[in-house]
Design a protein that fits this description.
alpha/beta, Rossmann fold, 3 helices, 8 strands, globular
């Protein structure tokens, strides 16, 4: 494992890794909800990897209240939990490998995500240190021979 938490082994290279820059916390919430809703409608199992349990709880609240007319079945799980077959899991530690989509709000290595076909790395544009960390992760992916994508999301509009 390299110093930034990305391993050279595993099958992350076969996953589609997309770095997504969001410009504000509100833009992050909007993008996140839209992405989760889109993949849920496609029948994909998703994991939202948060920094800690408190962040999981905040996103749990967001998913219950973000858009009144939309319900996204989800649950917060701990590593010791045996999650039920929910479409969206919120966790601070990867639980199993049975996910189609991983949305990374924390910086794990990719080894627990070998079953994912899509991995989203979120770049918090308002945090200079976070931008630099993600820049290094992007470069490292390229150094490993992977072809990460990049997307710029501004509140309410996607710019590919």
């Amino acid at each position: 494992m390299s110093s930034d938490g990305i391993t050279s082994g595993g099958s992350a290279a076969t996953s589609r890794i997309q770095f997504v820059r969001v410009t504000s916390p509100d833009a992050l919430n909007t993008w996140l909800f839209e992405l989760l809703e889109q993949h849920y409608r496609q029948g994909l199992r998703q994991v939202l990897l948060c920094r800690d349990r408190a962040a999981c709880d905040r996103y749990d609240d967001l998913l219950w209240t973000f858009r009144e007319e939309v319900f996204l079945p989800h649950m917060v799980v701990d590593p010791s939990d045996n999650p039920v077959d929910n479409r969206i899991l919120l966790t601070s530690t990867i639980v199993g490998e049975a996910f189609d989509v991983a949305i990374l709000l924390a910086d794990p290595d990719y080894t627990g995500l070998s079953g994912c076909t899509r991995i989203y790395e979120v770049i918090a544009q308002w945090n200079a240190a976070h931008v630099e960390e993600k820049r290094q992760r992007f470069r490292h992916c390229q150094d490993l021979g992977w072809s990460p994508g990049f997307q710029d999301y501004r509140h309410g509009e996607r710019q590919d």
